[in-house]
Amino acid sequence: MRAQFVLSEIGVGLRRNLTMTFAVIVSVALSLALFGGSLLMRDQVSTMKGYWYDKVNVSIYLCNKADAEQDPKCAKGAVTNEQKDQILTDLKKMPVVDTVQHESADEAYKHYKEQFGDSPLASSLTPDQMQESFRVKLKDPEKYQVVATAFSGRDGVQSVQDQKDYLDNLFELLNGMNWAAVAVMALMLVVALMLIVNTVRVSAFSRRRETGIMRLVGASSFYIQMPFIMEAAVAGLIGGGLACGMLVVGRYFMIDHGLALSEKINLINFIGWDAVLAKLPLVLAIGLLMPALAAFFALRKYLKV
């Protein structure tokens, strides 16, 4: 097969169907950008989980005098020193526990004032209204239920709370957004495939005389199909390149500069450039292979060669 002939036919096909080729490039670029974005979002959620789950604590809140008067769980009165010592001893014996930190009522009041000093309630609270607590860091954050079962309902314990529950709600929201992006990506992918098939068919119809002559002189099926397949592959590769550009620009603009989220939101450990660069070859490969395969199967039926 002469490479010069194939290349000339690719150029002819792209010029004849310039509008549809442009539509293919745009749709492929958008669908692959969403595909790459969904992969990066999944990596971001995994990074955040690893970062935050390592920092979450299980909080064992102890009964104070106010709880003893209002909360049925503290009907036996405020926690005693003996009960606190026993809770601390039992916590240190548990294999799932990494570290234990005691927070007194005065320390809890101080932390509350630091975080919510502007709140209207801050001026009406007193240290004796705050709860003492044990902040327990687990070796495995998933083993919260072991601590909850051991200490919920014990004398002097008002409640056992796992901070991971609050994070799970956030991660469920992020995962939901990610699945929404995947759904839009799938829709755009279907649109791109339909455009590719129609573009190939229009191109084949406009050159039916040439393909007929090639069949008469004994050209192979692969030789006849190759220019059309390459046209679709070139358009898809351009779209994949644009998608890669969108991912790089998006990471640069949203995290490093422009919105500069890495500077404004210090609580989030954002994914690095290595995660973005690792996805680019996959996006390019899909951009090249997807249109080529779609064109190949469309031509088998349409040209009947």
Structural write-up:
Pfam families: FtsX, FtsX_ECD. The chain contains eleven helices and four strands; from the N terminus they run ααβααβαβαβααααα. The chain has helices spanning 3-16, 18-53, 65-70, 81-93, 105-116, 144-151, 164-206, 208-216, 221-256, 261-264, 273-302, and strands at residues 58-62, 97-103, 133-138, 157-162. It is elongated and about 100 Å long. It is an alpha+beta fold and 305 residues long. Helix 1 (3-16) packs across helix 9 (221-256), helix 2 packs across helix 9 and helix 7 runs parallel beside helix 11. The chain has two domains: 1-50 and 166-301, no CATH class; 56-139, Alpha-Beta Plaits, CATH 3.30.70.
Order of helices and strands: HHEHHEHEHEHHHHH
Helix content: 55-70%
Strand order of the largest sheet: 2-3-1-4
- Described by the principal axes of the CA atoms, the overall outline is elongated
Radius of gyration: 31 Å
Helix run count: 11
Query: Poorly predicted ranges (pLDDT <50, ≥5 residues)?
Result: none
Instruction: Give the strand content.
Output: 5-15%
Average predicted confidence as pLDDT: 80
Span of the ends, CA to CA: 17 Å
